[in-house]
Amino acid sequence: MWRRYQIKDSVPGGTRDLQILWRRFECWIRENAPGDFAALRSGASGPEITILEDGVGFPLHSGLTSLLSVCNGVTPRRSSTEPGAFLLGYSLLVADQILESHVYLVSMARDAIEDGYEEEVIGRTAHPEWVPFAQSLTGDLLFVDHRDEHFGEIGEISFGDPEYLKLWPNMNRMFGDLCDAVENSTGLPTARRSPSIYDNRMVEWVSS
Q1: How crowded is residue 136: how many other Cβ atoms within 10 Å of its Cβ?
Q2: Which domain holds residue 71?
Q3: Whole-model pTM?
Q4: pLDDT single digits (tens) 161-192
Q5: Is residue 148 in some structural domain?
Q6: Residue 177, Cβ neighbours under 10 Å: how many?
Q7: Which residues contact 7 (CB under 8 A, 6 or more apart)?
Q8: Which of 74, 93, 111, 116 lies 20 to 30 A from 65 at CA?
Q9: Is residue 8 part of a domain?
Q10: Is 156 helix (H, G, I), strand (E, B) or coil?
């Protein structure tokens, strides 16, 4: 039986709310998915986040900086049987990996413009204002959208699909839904996945 933690959190909307939600989620994986818990890295320092923002070229959404401040990624995975992909099968990236992934998306967008097929790429599978924060073993990405009209939204890029998928309106809603899903063994409607425990040590997300 999965242990449940009820940490009363305020209405999602700010840095404090996200940190409360993270502690709630962290408490759950510590007791129910110890392998995932062991894969967590400590939070990034202020200078590390500043270096990342300088590299990206614009201020990061507060949801992303708040997440980095409590968890700067996870231990790299080498196979699907290793823990650390507790976020829908994605592993949180460390700050320098975030920058590398952003550079990759920027280069995709630039190449599309130079080669004349920007309509097939820009805002569909890549954009200079998308900042990845988690990656799957197959290379798919979760990102925070920094475009004005989509600021803070969480999207998913699957490079086998022609269009990205918006999953959540913000980071707070994402972790709120994740907490509810793992605590109650229920699915995530927007992501169409449900949690299960593999080998008593890590969270897996199966199609639902």
Answers
A1: 18
A2: 15-207
A3: 0.91
A4: 999 999 999 999 999 999 999 999 999 988 88
A5: yes
A6: 19
A7: 20, 23, 24, 27
A8: 111
A9: no
A10: strand
At CB < 8 A and 24+ separation, what contacts does 44-52 make?
44/68, 44/69, 44/72, 44/94, 44/95, 48/72, 48/95, 49/95, 51/95, 52/95, 52/96, 52/98, 52/99
Is residue 79 assigned to a domain? yes
Burial class (CB in 10 A: 0-12, 13-18, 19+), 54: exposed
Write the single-letter amino acid at 78: R
The total domain count for the chain is: 1
Domain of 59: which CATH number? 3.40.1580.10
Question: Once rounded to an integer, what is the mean pLDDT over residues 87-98?
Answer: 97
pLDDT for 137-146, tens place per residue?
999 999 999 9
Q: Please report whether residue 10 resides in a domain.
A: no
Annotate 80-133 with DSSP letters as a single string.
TTSS--TBTTBEEPPHHHHHHHHHHHHHHHHHHHHHT-HHHHBTTTB-TTEEEE
Report which residue type is found at 183.
E
Residues contacting 119, CB < 8 A, separation 6+: none
